Amino acid sequence: MARTVVIEAHGGPEQFRIVDREVGAPGPGEVRIAHKACGLNFIDVYQRSGVYPMTLPAAMGMEAAGVIEAVGEGVTHLAVGDRAAYAAQPPGAYCEARVMPAAQVCPLPDAISFEEGAAMMLKGLTVQYLFHRTTPLKAGDTVLFHAAAGGVGLIACQWTRSEGITLIGTAGTDEKCALAVEHGAAHCINYRSGDWVSEVRRLTGGAGVDVVMDAVGKDTFEGSLDSLKPFGMMISFGNASGVVPPFNLGVLGAKGSLKITRPTLFTHVAQHETCQAMARHLFDKVVSGAVKIRIDQRFPLDQVADAHRALEARTTTGSTVLTL
Ligand code: NDP
């Protein structure tokens, strides 16, 4: 049996229930993994609240790290006793142990702790695809990155520093801005205290940025488009402030032949080999020290509701893990 966090209805953090579930044996292409720590991500908030609807009742969570306890037929990249970590569907990572598809479960290097593994897979693989698989980016390019002191944000700050890309961050307090700069942002603007679009223009000598990476959504979408150079690329990859309302494509022409994409990690990691290669790239960044995984909040599994409240209240920085 394994303690598992489930919801029976969409809604607030009060919807969480902890139940004991039979774990069972892995079938073909599956593994059984005993978790050591679970990761918290903003996608979990969308799934809990119903912004991203789920079939209910549903187990929650998309990211964890632990030890492989059993492997099903046909699984060759993992063996019993291996350390492993993942960001994967279906949800169900907020638990002590589970059976799940093996394709997106990755062998975790010894140099990376279980907590770091749980804190970095979903966020770090997202940074990997944003900077290497979405639009060509090279040293010297300038990127505007919102919520730069968050879980994905602090990894992005360090990643760009290691690649010679200039990251202009935004964040909701001066303290968060200082944290983003400490982690490699060239500049960070407190977007709750003034006209951040003009500040982006000023910092780029009036030119605007090559790419915007915007997972804040509704509150920043317009300003993000206004921060781009002609032919610039808008990567809208989340909606922490609310879903971006439908908009007129003609706006992209009027603002300078802009491009826009709305990616999701789970398309990028759908193929086993691609997922494993992305993970190796991420692990290299962390093992080399170029990217340090910063865990600023830890909550026991049974306090998952408090963890969600903190994330939604914008009081967290860096990554958050659920401990077991
Ligand atoms: P974060 O740790 O970045 O937390 C979200 C941050 O968003 C907050 O700390 C806050 O920072 C900012 N924010 C702005 N407005 C609001 C609001 N109204 N309510 C709450 N937060 C707000 O979360 P994650 O690192 O887990 O994820 C970052 C974003 O990236 C999320 O939107 C997530 O959905 C997205 N994402 C998308 C993926 C994809 O493939 N499409 C994959 C992974 C993540 P501040 O106070 O500084 O404004």
Helix content: 25-40%
What gap, in angstroms, lies between the N and C termini?
14 Å
Main sheet specs: 7 strands, mixed
Count of beta strands: 16
Rg result: 20 Å
Structural descriptors:
Rossmann fold, globular, 7-stranded mixed β-sheet, alpha/beta, 6-stranded parallel β-sheet, 10 helices, 2 domains, 27% strand, Quinone Oxidoreductase, Chain A, domain 1, binds NADPH dihydro-nicotinamide-adenine-dinucleotide phosphate, 324 residues
Question: What this model shows, in words?
Answer:
- With 324 residues, the chain is of the alpha/beta class.
- It folds into two domains: 2-123 and 266-323, Quinone Oxidoreductase, Chain A, domain 1 (Alpha-Beta Complex); 135-262, NAD(P)-binding Rossmann-like Domain (Rossmann fold).
- 30% of the residues lie in helices and 27% in strands.
- It has helices at residues 42-49, 114-132, 151-163, 174-182, 196-203, 221-226, 250-254, 265-268, 272-287, 304-312, and strands at 2-7, 17-21, 30-39, 58-59, 63-71, 83-87, 97-101, 105-107, 142-145, 166-171, 187-190, 209-214, 228-236, 259-261, 295-300, 319-323.
- The strands form three sheets. Strands 3, 5, 6, 7, 8, 15 and 16 form a seven-stranded mixed beta sheet that branches.
- Helix 3 links the parallel strand 9 (142-145) and strand 10.
- Helix 2 (114-132) packs across helix 3 (151-163) and helix 2 crosses helix 9 (272-287).
- The longest helix is centred in the middle third of the chain and has 19 residues, at 114-132.
- The radius of gyration is 20 Å and the shape is globular.
- It starts with a strand and ends with a strand.
- The mean pLDDT is 98.
- The structure holds NADPH dihydro-nicotinamide-adenine-dinucleotide phosphate.
- Residues 41-43, 122-123, 126, 147, 149-153, 171-172, 176, 215-216, 219, 237-238, 240-241, 263-265, 311-312, 314, 316 line the site of NADPH dihydro-nicotinamide-adenine-dinucleotide phosphate.
